[in-house]
Write a sequence for this structure.
C-alpha cells in the first residue's frame, strides 16, 4: 500500500517541485544553454524581443509577461489546486483500474529517474515556432530559447536596450584617480567630429537616457543627428566596483558630490578625449586641424549630474586645465536648494543633526539584499498590472515629494533596480545637499573643521562655486520644470541670475514637466529644444573650412 500511495502522490510531488527545478535550471542556464556551434540563431530572448515596436516604452510594454508578487501567489495557488484535483483523479483511477495502475507503477519503479529526466530535458530544450519575414519558405521553424531573467524579474541593462533597437554599442571601463571603476557606455559613430556626453542624476544610471525607446530618448535622438554618443555612469553601485576588491562598505561609500565633479566626470571626459582623438587620427588621417581637440564635445546633464558638471567646469578652470567641452545643457540642475518641500526639509535638518551617528550606521541608502531587490522588482510589476494599486502608490509618492508629478511608479520599474545590482545614494552626498541648503550657496563639501577644509581647499571654508561662475567660458543652457517640486524653477533661476551677472553666455527655458520627466518621459518638444541647442555648436571641419574660405576670399580681394 505504501508503494500505491507513493504513486498516487507522485503528481503532487512533481507539480510542487516544478518551481525548484525551474530555478535550478535558471542557475545553470549559462553552461547548458550556450548556443550550438551549428545553430545559426543565438539561444536567448534578445532577437525574439526585436519584433516589438520601437515606439513602445522600454518598461511599459503591453506584451510584457513578467510576473509580480500577486501573480506569483496566484500561480502557486493554481498549481496547488490543480495538484490536489489531480491527486484525487489518480486515486479514483487506481481504485477503479487496479491492473492499469500496477502496470504504470511497475514502469516507474523500474526506472525511477526517467520521468523527471524527461521533464527536465523537455523544459531545458523548450522551443518557440518562429518565422523570418522575407524567407523563401515562411513556414515557422523551431528555435531554442533560454529564459533570460532569473525569477521572472527584469534585469536588462543599457546595452540590452541599445542593441535591441539595432544601434551599435560599446562599453569602456574607466578607472578614476581614487580607484573607482566606472562604466562609460557608448553608441559609437567613430568618424564623427561632434560628440555628446550625457550624465545622469541621483539614483539613476545611463539607462535613463534610452528608457523611452527610439523616438523619445535623448541618446538615440543625438545619434540620429550624427553625434557620437557617450553615456556616463557615476560611482555608487551596490556591486561596489573598485580596483580594491576587498574595499569595505564604509570606505566605498565615503564620497560626496565633490568626487562626482572632480574625479568621476574628469576621468570619463579624459577617456572620451583619448578615444576620439585616436579614432579620428585613424579614420581621417589627411584632415589637418589647428586646434588640439579635433572634435566638439557637448554635455547634457540632469539633476545631480548638472551640479557635478558645473563643479567640473569651474574647478578645471581654477586649476587652469582644459575641460574640453563646447556647450552645457543642464536639465533641472542641482546646486541651490533654499526651497524644498516639507519632507526634504525635515530630512536635511535630521541629516545635519545626526550626521556623526548616521555616517557610521548608514553609509549609503540602497536595498541591501538580492531577495528584497527582487521583491521590489516584482511589487512594481504589481503596481503596473493593478492600476488601482499603482495609482495609490503614485499618489502617495507624489505627495511625499511635494506634489511633483513625475511618474514615480514607472521609475521604480526601471531595470537598473534589479536583484543583481542597483544605484545607491551615499550618505555624504545627502549630507552635502543638506549643507548646501543650510548655507544657501552652491559650494563644495564641508569636512567639518577648518583644518580639514584648509588641507583640501586651501581655506577654512569650502569653495563657493557660484562665486567662480565668471570662469565659465562656454555657453550654458538651463532648463527648468514648472511642475518640478524637487528642484523648483526658482532654484534654476538662481543659477541663471548668478551666471548672467558673471557674464556667462547663458539661456533659460521652462517646460511643463516634473523632475523625472526630463529623462524618463517622452516629450518631443524637449528633445527638439535640446537638439537645437546642440546644433548651435559648429563642427570642427565646417568651422575651419569656412575660415579657409574667408582667407581665400581676402587673398582674392587683395590681389584684385
Amino acid at each position: 500500500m505504501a508503494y500505491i500511495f507513493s504513486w498516487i502522490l507522485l503528481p503532487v510531488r512533481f507539480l510542487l517541485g516544478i518551481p525548484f527545478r525551474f530555478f535550478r535550471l535558471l542557475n545553470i542556464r549559462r553552461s547548458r544553454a550556450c548556443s550550438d556551434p551549428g545553430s545559426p540563431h543565438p539561444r536567448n530572448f534578445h532577437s525574439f524581443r526585436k519584433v516589438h515596436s520601437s515606439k513602445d516604452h522600454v518598461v511599459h510594454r503591453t506584451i510584457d509577461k513578467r510576473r509580480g508578487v500577486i501573480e506569483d501567489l496566484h500561480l502557486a495557488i493554481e498549481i496547488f489546486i490543480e495538484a490536489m484535483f489531480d491527486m484525487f483523479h489518480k486515486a479514483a483511477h487506481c481504485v477503479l483500474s487496479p491492473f492499469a495502475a500496477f502496470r504504470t507503477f511497475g514502469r516507474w519503479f523500474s526506472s525511477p529517474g526517467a520521468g523527471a529526466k524527461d521533464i527536465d530535458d523537455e523544459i531545458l530544450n523548450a522551443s518557440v515556432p518562429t518565422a523570418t519575414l522575407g524567407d523563401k519558405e515562411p513556414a515557422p521553424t523551431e528555435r531554442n530559447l533560454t529564459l533570460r531573467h532569473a525569477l521572472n524579474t527584469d534585469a536588462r541593462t543599457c546595452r540590452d536596450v541599445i542593441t535591441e533597437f539595432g544601434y551599435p554599442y560599446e562599453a569602456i571601463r574607466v578607472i578614476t584617480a581614487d580607484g573607482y571603476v566606472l562604466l562609460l557606455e557608448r553608441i559609437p559613430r567613430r568618424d564623427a567630429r561632434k560628440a555628446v556626453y550625457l550624465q545622469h542624476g541621483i539614483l539613476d544610471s545611463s539607462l535613463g537616457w534610452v528608457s523611452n525607446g527610439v523616438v523619445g530618448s535623448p541618446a538615440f535622438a543625438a545619434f540620429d543627428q550624427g553625434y557620437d554618443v557617450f553615456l556616463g555612469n557615476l560611482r555608487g553601485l551596490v556591486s561596489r566596483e573598485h580596483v580594491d576588491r576587498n574595499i569595505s562598505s564604509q570606505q566605498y561609500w565615503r564620497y560626496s558630490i565633490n568626487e562626482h565633479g572632480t574625479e568621476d566626470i574628469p576621468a570619463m571626459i579624459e577617456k572620451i578625449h583619448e578615444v576620439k582623438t585616436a579614432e579620428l587620427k585613424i579614420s581621417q588621417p589627411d584632415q589637418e586641424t589647428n586646434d588640439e581637440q579635433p572634435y566638439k564635445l557637448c554635455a547634457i546633464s540632469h539633476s545631480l549630474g548638472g551640479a557635478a558638471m558645473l563643479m567640473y567646469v569651474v574647478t578645471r578652470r581654477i586649476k587652469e586645465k582644459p575641460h574640453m567641452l563646447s556647450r552645457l545643457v543642464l536639465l533641472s540642475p542641482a546646486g541651490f536648494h533654499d526651497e524644498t518641500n516639507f519632507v526634504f526639509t525635515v530630512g536635511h535638518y535630521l541629516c545635519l543633526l545626526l550626521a556623526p551617528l548616521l555616517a557610521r550606521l548608514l553609509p549609503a541608502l540602497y536595498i541591501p539584499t538580492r531577495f528584497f531587490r527582487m521583491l521590489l522588482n516584482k511589487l512594481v510589476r504589481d503596481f503596473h498590472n493593478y492600476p488601482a494599486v499603482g495609482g495609490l502608490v503614485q499618489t502617495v509618492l507624489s505627495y511625499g515629494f511635494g506634489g511633483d508629478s513625475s511618474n514615480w511608479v514607472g521609475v521604480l520599474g526601471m531595470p537598473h533596480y534589479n536583484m543583481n545590482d542597483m544605484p545607491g545614494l551615499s550618505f555624504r552626498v545627502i549630507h552635502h545637499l543638506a549643507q548646501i541648503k543650510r548655507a544657501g550657496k552652491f559650494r563644495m563639501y564641508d569636512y567639518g573643521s577648518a583644518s580639514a577644509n584648509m588641507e583640501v581647499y586651501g581655506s577654512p571654508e569650502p569653495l563657493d562655486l557660484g562665486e567662480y561662475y565668471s570662469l565659465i567660458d562656454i555657453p550654458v543652457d538651463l532648463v527648468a520644470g514648472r511642475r518640478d517640486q524637487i528642484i523648483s524653477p526658482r532654484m534654476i533661476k538662481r543659477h541663471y541670475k548668478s551666471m548672467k551677472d558673471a557674464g556667462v553666455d547663458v539661456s533659460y527655458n521652462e517646460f511643463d514637466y516634473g523632475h523625472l520627466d526630463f529623462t524618463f518621459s517622452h516629450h518631443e518638444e524637449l528633445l527638439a529644444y535640446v537638439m537645437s541647442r546642440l546644433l548651435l555648436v559648429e563642427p570642427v571641419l565646417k568651422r575651419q573650412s569656412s575660415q579657409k574660405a574667408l582667407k581665400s576670399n581676402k587673398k582674392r580681394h587683395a590681389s584684385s
Notes: The longest helix spans residues 69-96. The first strand starts at residue 127 and ends at 130.
